[in-house]
Specification:
Structural class: alpha/beta
Largest sheet: 9 strands, mixed
CATH topology of the largest domain: UDP-N-acetylmuramoyl-L-alanine:D-glutamate ligase
Radius of gyration: 27 Å
CATH superfamily of the largest domain: Ribokinase
Shape: elongated
Helix content: 25-40%
Oligomer: single chain
Strand order of the largest sheet: 10-9-8-11-12-13-14-15-16
Number of helices: 18
Number of domains: 2
Number of strands: 16
Strand content: 15-25%
């Protein structure tokens, strides 16, 4: 698990009703119990920073005091710089405790000159944990030296200070822990770090349910990077949508408009000649390229493959129709386009067996149950567990990420599975699936993996539908949903 994954899970657990204060309480208690169960009451030095790692140390302090331990707490920051509410609350509790008779000594260290060696039997590193970036700054750098020079038993909280939680590398210096107590799951860097830094690794269960990882939630929005303030045109993604026919000119337009609503810079529609002017009329934001005929056919393949090289991702299938010539073209494009592809709608009924595994790029398919049967030949079972197993099998066999749309969306890429429960019955209206395809294409264009794009797209599209339902009830249109896609990212919608 990466630090970003842990941030996501924390936020998702909070959204499920398990507040971060509870998770911090469980982490601090678990840390304290590791000491209490292995040591008789003695003096413990806790070196704490101003983030969540320090908050875990603050909680542990209370439990240690209650069990007869003497605690010297060294806070290497300024209280005004504490950057989380749960850490602040636990700091304020310790300030009150320190005015009583408990054997607690608190020192606020703003300058390394105020640090001195400790003779404590146990030393706890609650300084940075997963918050390390590059070289350590003072006074934390000097605190790491003092921790390493001390003779006490050293316990690191989550990740030893100075160890990169993603790579396990040490850029500057790091705490040499005897034990690393990490929470929920082992951070990926711990498995790659030298044992001289991490010592033995112990995992504490802090009460996060598996559903906080399995289901999408507001924390997953943290996976999407903020737009670069100095970005230029095209840097935020270019999506090509190939689709449309006489009956369904709106489908590719909705996919393109949803990509733009998500935040890509360019969404271009390549469509049959007969409907190109109609699609242009939907919005001046759309760039439209006319194909050679009134339906997609093999004569267009070479030109579309060439065109795709200018884009970061491609969406194929929205309103594309099911003519025999279109089937030939879709199968050719699926093999020859060398960019991440989303395959949706009629295209799923046209792809021949064995075509997609030959692709060397990421591929996402987005079937509803009927399209799933047409694509895979397998019916969708009734119970959720069986559905998950079938979707996972089809993903492995087809070499794709599969997003099976339903009351609970199932997203699988080989053995990886995510579920999404956002959305509502109003989304049975035509066009919402095209919006989903466009959002997934946008995510892939911005560099997300197929799997991540699929489950994030399902979540975002579903939230947009839920926002539309609040305004219109179930009687909303796909064009109503479009305007809510940007609102998913507004600060006043999610407090994460």
């Amino acid at each position: 698990m990466t630090p970003k994954d842990m941030m996501v899970v924390d936020a998702n657990a909070d959204a499920m009703g398990i507040p971060r204060t509870s998770l911090m309480e469980n982490a601090g208690r678990c840390l304290a119990n590791r000491i209490i169960q292995n040591k008789n009451p003695c003096k413990v030095a806790i070196y704490a920073g101003n983030g969540g790692n320090g908050g875990d140390g603050f909680v542990a302090t209370r439990y240690l005091l209650n069990n007869g331990f003497e605690v010297d707490l060294y806070f290497l920051s300024d209280p005004v710089l504490i950057n989380s509410e749960e850490t602040r609350l636990n700091w304020e509790v310790l300030e009150k405790i320190s005015k009583g008779t408990s054997p607690l000594k608190i020192e606020v260290i703003k300058d390394s000159s105020y640090l001195s060696p400790t003779d404590s039997e146990v030393i706890v590193d609650a300084l940075l944990g997963t918050g390390v970036h590059g070289n350590l700054k003072e006074p934390i750098s000097s605190a790491v030296d003092i921790i390493n020079q001390s003779e006490g038993f050293k316990i690191a909280v989550d990740v030893p200070t100075g160890v990169d939680p993603d790579s396990g590398m040490v850029t500057d210096k790091a705490v040499h822990a005897d034990v690393t107590v990490t929470f929920h799951k082992v951070k990926v860097g711990l498995n790659m770090a030298s044992v001289e830094y991490v010592g033995s690794i112990e995992v504490c269960d802090i009460g996060i349910p598996k559903e906080a990882e399995l289901f999408t939630g507001p924390g997953d929005i943290l996976r999407i990077e903020d737009r670069d303030s100095i970005s230029h045109k095209g840097q935020n993604g270019r999506v090509l949508i190939i689709g449309g026919n006489r009956e369904y000119s709106g489908a590719p337009a909705l996919a393109a408009l949803s990509s733009l609503a998500f935040g890509v810079d360019i969404a271009q529609v390549a469509c049959p000649q007969e409907v190109s002017s109609v699609i242009k009329s939907y919005s001046p934001d759309l760039i439209v390229t006319s194909l050679s005929h009134d339906f997609l056919n093999p004569n267009d393949t070479d030109e579309l493959v060439k065109l795709s090289k200018n884009f970061d991702s491609v969406v194929i299938g929205c309103g594309i129709g099911r003519k025999d010539e279109t089937s030939l073209a879709v199968n050719d494009l699926a093999v020859e386009i060398e960019k991440p592809i989303v395959i949706d709608a009629d295209a799923l009924k046209l792809i021949g067996p064995g075509v997609l595994p030959r692709r060397n790029q990421e591929t996402v398919i987005t079937p509803h149950p009927g399209e799933f049967i047409a694509f895979s030949g397998q019916k969708v079972p009734q119970d959720l567990e069986s559905q998950i197993n079938v979707v996972r099998d089809v993903s492995t066999e087809s070499g794709t990420t599969v997003l099976l749309k339903g009351k609970v969306d199932i997203i699988a890429q080989n053995d990886k599975v995510k579920l999404n429960s956002t959305g509502n019955p109003g989304m049975t209206v035509g066009g919402t699936g095209d919006c989903l395809a466009g959002v997934i294409g946008a995510l892939m264009a911005q560099g997300h993996s197929g799997f991540e794009s699929a489950f994030l797209g399902a979540y975002i599209n579903g939230i947009a539908g839920d926002l539309a339902e609040k305004e219109f009830g179930y009687n909303f249109k796909a064009t109503d949903l479009l305007k809510y896609i940007p609102k998913v990212f507004m600060d006043d919608y999610f407090d994460i």
